[in-house]
Amino acid sequence: MGRRTNLALAVLVSAAFVTGVAGFLLGGSRTGLVLVVHGVAGLAIVLLVPWKTIVVRRGLRRHRPDSWLSVGLAVAVVAAVASGVVHSVGIWQARGIWSAMGLHIGAALMVVPLFGWHLRARPQWPRRADLSRRAVVRGVAVVGGALAVRAVTRDDLRFTGSHEIGSFRPAEMPVVQWLDDSPPSIPLDGWALVVGDRQVGYDELLERSEEVVAALDCTGGWYSTQWWRGVRVGHLLGPDRAGRSIEIVSATGYGRRFPIGDADHLLLATHVGDEPLSQGHGFPVRLVAPSRRGFWWVKWVVAVRTSDRPWWLQSPVPFT
Ligand code: HEM
Ligand code: HEM
Ligand SMILES: Nc1nc2c(c(=O)[nH]1)N[C@H]1C(S)=C(S)[C@@H](COP(=O)(O)O)O[C@H]1N2
Ligand SMILES: [Mo]
User: Fold this and answer.
1) What residues sit around ligand 4, an ion, with C-beta below 5 angstroms?
2) Residue 165 CA: which ligand is closest?
3) Nearest ligand, CA 11
4) Which of 102, 193, 196, 258 could disulfide-link 200, Cβ–Cβ 3.0 to 4.6 Å?
5) Distance, CA 307 to ligand 4 centroid (Å)?
6) Could you tell me if 100 and 87 are in contact, meaning their C-beta atoms sit under 8 angstroms apart?
7) CA 105 to CA 16: how far, in whole Å?
8) Nearest to 102 by CA among 18, 258, 222
9) Does pLDDT of 240 surpass 80?
């Protein structure tokens, strides 16, 4: 029984971490399924507590000198699960590092090294007999229980797990920087967007603008749907675009690289909800990248260029 519990925890904690990271990086509708697995794995850990308690008692009785690391693991897992549930339930919706989602990711990152250590220090190998009919029935019951708990704990979240805030009310939309970037003040006179070897002025952008509705979905756990107005990147590049990827560069040095095929979905926005962008939201121009997480929505864009590099030849998340 103890061994099966430990093996189940090995699967559940790994699955929770992998699906958490995947949900974080993805933005498309497939994210929904990934987060079902995530919630179920995370909540199933709780359902195994009664059985794991027996293992823990037995382990602690052995007075190993390194057991405090196992206790540390328990603290980190409890923190990860609790902050995950607090985020999901939506009772506390602060933003930034000290938000439920910020603490959740922090706790999950603490779990990783402690969990790796625990697996090495307290190894446990499956045996063929572990996969008995009873074990399968129990497994199904735990997954079913976790699904039921998830149905109860999950607030009205987007499929990415984000809470809605300030949709169609741009003034209420939070201003967020990825890590340590800060909003530059960019005067319009003399300003021009560099597109390849051309310069495109602000007025020229306004002339060719169109509107799209898209949700800015920050990995910090909130999203905001707005009307955005601007010019499609594909429009600016024209029909004969060579290269494999498009680089979008910010005045701050921040930037992301996109597949060339995305050109017609990406919008260089000057306006949100009929008002020019505020400084915090990226004045004069920011990228709107529908179905991608917020960190792709480069603010204070100064240059757009095509390149022969594949889009995936970049860090999975930005560095500034
Ligand atoms: C060992 C690691 C982890 C555990 C045990 C864990 C556990 C949980 C739990 C229990 C929930 C609440 C589910 C619910 O009440 O419905 C949750 C939600 C969530 N977690 Fe994690 N998590 C882990 C790692 C991560 C990581 C690394 C990320 C992102 C980088 C992440 C992102 C999320 C998100 C976005 C939600 C809300 C999802 C939703 O309910 O749709 N988690 N997690
Ligand atoms: C949620 C994840 C887990 C937590 C919080 C956790 C926590 C603990 C704690 C606090 C102890 C008692 C102290 C000690 O012996 O060091 C312990 C013992 C142990 N754990 Fe874990 N554990 C987890 C997952 C696992 C996994 C995945 C395995 C192996 C696949 C495992 C195998 C063991 C073993 C073999 C013992 C010692 C039992 C004994 O000496 O009788 N644990 N665990
Ligand atoms: N130049 C730059 N653009 C950026 C960021 C940044 O730090 N620097 N942060 C990104 C992140 S993580 C998000 S969620 C959105 C937030 O946009 P908002 O401030 O308009 O809400 O901008 C993105 N664009
Ligand atoms: Mo973000």
Assistant:
1) 176, 218, 294
2) 3
3) 2
4) 193
5) 25
6) yes
7) 11
8) 222
9) no
